[in-house]
Design goal:
Layout: H1 2-13, E1 16-25, E2 32-36, E3 42-47, E4 63-68, E5 76-82, E6 96-99, E7 105-109, E8 112-116, H2 154-163
Antiparallel strand pairs: 1-2, 1-4, 2-3, 4-5, 6-7, 7-8
């Protein structure tokens, strides 16, 4: 009876372990990791389970929480990963963020959503349209029309607009109304 209890206690102790990721294989439908649990224990091809809709490729040294079915060290799977070096800190209660190791993030704050490109471009693709319903849209740089072809910035359009004029024929004085002609000036 005591031997059975000792065996059960060992299995319970072996149900969970914490280790460091040393290699990631992200080429298959289930990501597998190489996890070092201690100086003597290196587990190859440990499947990693993540929440649906979220995926990542954790950098080397990321901590992994490994669960083992029935305490069997040959039947483990990663259920969580964490990397203190890159973790965003200072979030208020109820706030959420997704981030990477390069400083890019989407941060859902109390006061609004903050998207940080980490110095990289932000690209929207495969959208049928982009709609902004806001009373005010602020841009600190130039807005460019047809940017990948022959487009120009709105600041260049503003120079053309501010400098253009229309020829008004048959000017009359007093309370007369004259409608200008369509501009013939080239852009």
């Amino acid at each position: 009876m005591l031997a059975d209890l000792n065996r059960l206690a060992r299995r319970i102790l072996l149900l969970m372990a914490r280790g460091a990721i040393s290699l990631v294989d992200d080429t298959k439908s289930v990501q597998t990791l190489q996890v070092r649990l201690n100086a003597l224990e290196l587990l190859p091809d440990v499947p990693r389970y993540a929440e649906f809709g979220f995926t990542s490729n954790p950098p080397d040294g990321t901590q992994a929480l490994v669960a083992f079915k029935n305490g069997d060290r040959n039947d483990g799977f990663v259920i969580a990963t964490s990397n203190a070096k890159y973790r965003m800190t200072g979030l208020a209660s109820g706030e959420v963020a997704i981030h990477d190791s390069r400083g890019q993030s989407v941060y859902l704050t109390e006061s609004g959503i903050v998207i940080n490109g980490g110095g990289n471009p932000i690209t929207l693709t495969n959208a049928s349209k982009v709609r902004a319903e806001t009373p005010r849209l602020e841009c600190t740089g130039d807005i460019v029309d047809h940017c990948d072809t022959t487009g120009r910035a709105m600041s260049a359009d503003r120079l053309i607009f501010d400098g253009h004029h229309h020829l008004v024929k048959n000017v009359q004085g007093g309370g007369s109304n004259i409608v200008s002609e369509v501009p013939t000036e080239q852009e």
